[in-house]
Design a protein that fits this description.
Elements: H1 3-16, H2 24-37, H3 55-63, H4 71-78, H5 82-88, H6 90-98, E1 106-109, E2 118-122, E3 128-132, E4 139-142, H7 143-160, H8 165-187, H9 191-196, E5 199-200, H10 201-211, H11 214-228, H12 232-239, E6 240-243, E7 246-249, E8 256-258, H13 259-263, H14 268-283, H15 288-294, E9 298-305, E10 316-322, E11 329-336, H16 354-365, E12 374-379, E13 385-392, H17 407-428, H18 431-438, H19 443-472
Antiparallel strand pairs: 1-4, 2-3, 3-5, 6-7, 8-9, 9-10, 10-11, 11-13, 12-13
Helix pairs in contact: 2-18, 4-5, 5-7, 7-8, 7-17, 7-19, 8-17, 8-18, 8-19
């Protein structure tokens, strides 16, 4: 990234907190002035540049820092459908967005704001809330990058569901409108009210069920009940067993492989000491009250676990801890944090530790965050230093069942996701300037819908490129894992 561009992003970060345009009128004027530089209608444009890197080439670049034997699993999961390919293609889209004109209106980006990276989880007060739930790629950047990725994900998902061009357009225009109107609402809020704002699942359910069919209500209630039950106790029941009188994580290779099986019996004690050291380092990043909570637990077992689509191949560990007795489990996930896919195109993160980058971004933008969030930098058993962030493995987490949505349901879900993305951006950026830029007309909404369809075309071409690379033997994909 050029020095001039980095200075521009840094200046935009300062504007995001109102340090240069402190009055509301100045911030409104600045938002309107940006339209001259980047017209709202210009967001409709997408065409691959002549020298666009190949999709497979970019994926191979990412694979260089990943566990080699897991990379074919990643490709296999991406090839399930164009939608799963899109989920794994955050780096591809970041490369494409970097070549587009951008507003310079900076917010803390999710970095991978596709529709499956939103969902429900339990807040510290144990009420279920809805928010963004994946921050691996978070970094400050132009707000529209997140909105474009979210809109494109709905266009791709709509094709996967067999929706017509007209139906998909309705969904994505609704998404743009919801983001724009929500940002306008947040721009008018007092700062503390904005900070406390969150989307409670109970309130969303009341609005949703009032318009849903009986079958849709039944499915919605089943999904919510399932997510509520998805906690450490459920993980304990499903993912552990008694071995020689001791509780152990199940061995289910290649998805779950206990640490002892990875290192062998001759290094078992070394692995145990390593994991205790990791927990000790992680403990330092927690607040005092949460350190006291963690001290009530002891490490019992650990395993490598393959997670997600885009994350496959990065190092992810699950650690089983027990508290007062054998029925008091805590499952933690240690997930490797590599530099954001956005970093080659934006200013470098202010945090040297990539795990801290993820955690700080999550705390800044998420409505309510996991009480066990933390980070570490550790030297692994292979002698290499890596950054990780830490969270509870399951904490009433749930996601929407996209494959069961009709057009009305997907349109409603798009509005909810867009509103929550706007809240995250309003907390971390200059809501007044962004709202002023978006304005009151539907210009941005319509442009966003056109972009989403054009980029869905690009996604299909990239999907076919990966499929061809597998057929030719250039890359190996392992399906069904």
């Amino acid at each position: 990234m050029g020095e001039a561009k980095e200075e521009e992003i840094t200046a935009s970060r300062r504007r995001a907190v109102g340090s240069e345009y402190s009055s509301v009128s100045d911030r409104v004027a600045y938002g309107k002035a940006v339209r001259a530089k980047v017209p709202r209608s210009s967001h409709a444009a997408w065409a691959p540049p002549a020298k666009r890197p190949g999709a497979v080439q970019l994926l191979e670049q990412q694979a260089k820092t990943r566990i080699p034997e897991l990379v074919p699993i990643r490709y296999g999961r991406m090839l399930v459908s164009p939608f799963t390919f899109f989920r794994g293609g955050a780096y591809l889209m970041a490369t494409d967005l970097a070549g587009q004109p951008h507003t310079g209106l900076v917010a803390q980006l999710c970095g991978d704001a596709h529709l499956s990276n939103f969902g429900t989880f339990a807040a510290p007060d144990r009420r279920q809330v809805f928010s963004i739930n994946d921050f691996d790629e978070t970094l400050p950047g132009p707000f529209e990058w997140d909105v474009k990725r979210l809109a494109a994900s709905f266009a791709v998902a709509g094709r996967d569901r067999g929706f017509s061009d007209k139906q998909r357009n309705v969904v994505n225009v609704a998404l743009g409108r919801a983001y724009r109107t929500a940002m306008g609402r947040f721009a008018g809020m007092r700062s503390l009210d904005l900070w406390y704002a969150r989307s409670d699942v109970a309130e969303l359910a009341a609005r949703w069920t009032a318009r849903a069919t009986a079958e849709q209500r039944r499915r919605f209630e089943q999904n919510i009940a399932k997510s509520r039950a998805k906690d450490s106790l459920r993980a304990f029941a499903r993912m552990t067993e008694i071995v020689d009188g001791a509780r152990r994580i199940v061995n289910d290779p290649p998805v779950i492989v206990p640490l002892d099986d990875l290192v062998g019996p001759e290094r078992a004690h070394e692995a145990e000491d390593f994991m205790r050291g990791v927990l000790h380092s992680y403990r330092r990043t927690l607040s005092g009250d949460r350190r006291k909570l963690l001290e009530r637990f002891r490490v019992v077992d650990a395993a490598r676990k393959v997670v997600g689509v885009g994350s496959v191949g990065t190092r992810a560990w699950i650690v089983l801890l027990l508290g007062r007795d054998g029925d008091d489990p805590l499952f933690l996930q240690f997930k490797e944090a590599q530099p954001s896919v956005l970093q080659p195109f934006l200013a470098k993160s202010e945090f040297a530790n990539q795990g801290q980058r993820v955690v700080e971004g999550q705390r800044l933008t998420q409505a309510a965050s996991d009480i066990m969030l933390g980070w570490i930098r550790t030297t692994g058993l292979d002698g290499l230093k890596r950054d990780f962030y830490v969270r509870q493995l399951w904490d009433a987490k749930g996601t929407a069942i996209i494959e069961l949505m009709d057009t009305n349901a997907m349109s409603a879900y798009a509005r909810v996701c867009a509103g929550e993305l706007a809240r995250a951006h309003a907390r971390s950026g200059d809501a007044v300037a962004i709202a002023s830029y978006l304005g009151n007309s539907d210009t941005f909404d319509r442009a966003l819908a056109l972009f989403a369809e054009s980029y869905a075309d690009q996604n299909e071409r990239d999907y076919e490129a990966l499929a061809d690379a597998v057929k030719s033997g250039r890359v190996k994909a392992e399906s069904g894992v």
